Each structure stands twice: as C-alpha cells, then as structure tokens.
Amino acid sequence: MYTPEIYKNENPEEIRTFLKENSFGILINQTNGKLCATHIPIEFEINADGKEILQGHISKLNPQAEGFKENDQVLAVFTGPHSYISSSWYDHENVPTWNYIAVHVYGKIKIVDYETSVEQLKKLVDKYEANSENPVRVENLSEKTMREARGIFGFEIEISEIQATKKLSQNRDDFNYKNIISELEKTENPQAIAVAKEMSKCRK
After folding, report:
1. Range of 85's domain?
2. In what order do the strands lie in the sheet with 52-59?
3. Residue range 67-85: average pLDDT?
4. Of 23, 48, 185, 196, whose CB count within 10 A is highest?
C-alpha cells in the first residue's frame, strides 16, 4: 500500500485496536492465476506461542480456498471511517481529497482442523453477541445446526507485515485542520463525523 511518510501509522497499539474494532475485512489471494477476494470477519488474535495472527473462516464451496494450497501468501485489507474532503473548506486554493484509515496485513495462511474452527466460531459469536439481550452461544446450538460448521474451512494467518495508513489532513495547519473537522461535523454523514472524531483525537 502506497503511503506517504506523513500518513504512516507505526503505533503498534493503535493498529491492534483498529484491527479489533474494524475486523470485517477483505481476504485476498491468487487462485488459478486470478486474484480472488472474500468479505469476511477476520479477527486479530494472539496464538498459544504468543504470536500475533489473524483468524477466520470461509465456505468450503468458495473456490478461493483452492488457492491456499498453491500459494499460501495472502493479503487482508481492513478499512475504517473515510470521507470526501472539499477544498472549499480551506482558506486557500487547493484540490479536493479523501481522508481515510486503512490497514493491510500480509501473511501466510493455513487451514486449521474442525475442532479449532469451532473454537474460533465460539470466540467470534461471543464477541458479537456480547450486547445481545438473548445472546446466542455456539455451545448451545443443536447437533443439526452445528452440521453447518462442517461446511467451512477455519484458517489462521501468520502475520509477516503490516502497513497502516491514517490520512487525516495532517499536512494542514491548525486553522484549516479545525475547519475541516467543523465542516465534516456539519454533514450529518456518519462516516464524515467518524473521520472528524478521529481527527480531533490526533490534534487537540
């Protein structure tokens, strides 16, 4: 991912938090000479050896999985809030742009066994059911329902490289920076407001 120095995020804790909060990603690999991508939850975890990994699952019917045997190198893409930035918000002439936060994770993928896949499902469901009034638990699902779990491949990605971009108008002076935040807040667009919130955290 091309990222000018000013927009690089090299704060490990911030990146980990981002991955945990924006875990619906895009898994990309090459299968039969063609690039394939699947939109799925991909969770950041620490494995038994203390290594940072990503884990998730895809359908056994998904042809993308065939490519894991040929080439185990994959890319997982995660995006956060993003918004158009109008140059009319500056006190000088310039071009419009786009503010966004994104993380690319490169690594080596391996398929895990059925028992590990079920453990991954338990963690995933528990995470997203935490605030439910009547939370679903994998442990309580019937044998018939759990047969569906036989239709997935659980996987783990051993992380080899992380590239993180946080493009939030860092190149603007304080006056223009504050004005961008103000204009974003006026839009009533949830994405734009989320970008304004992230910008406010970066510069008080």
Report:
1. 5-171
2. 34-41, 24-31, 73-85, 97-111, 152-167, 52-59, 43-46
3. 95
4. 196
- 83's enclosing H/E stretch is strand 73-85
The answer as to whether 86 is a domain residue is: yes
Give the per-residue pLDDT at 154: 95
Q: Are 169 and 180 in contact (CB under 8 A)?
A: yes
Structural domains of the chain, count? 1
In a domain, 131, yes or no: yes
* 8 Å CB contact between 77 and 38: no
The domain that contains 160 carries what CATH number? 2.30.110.10
Residue 192, in any domain of the structure: no
Report yes or no: 15 and 52 within 8 Å, Cβ to Cβ: no
Contact 99/83 with Cβ under 8 angstroms?
yes
Does residue 186 fall inside a structural domain?
Answer: no
pTM value? 0.93
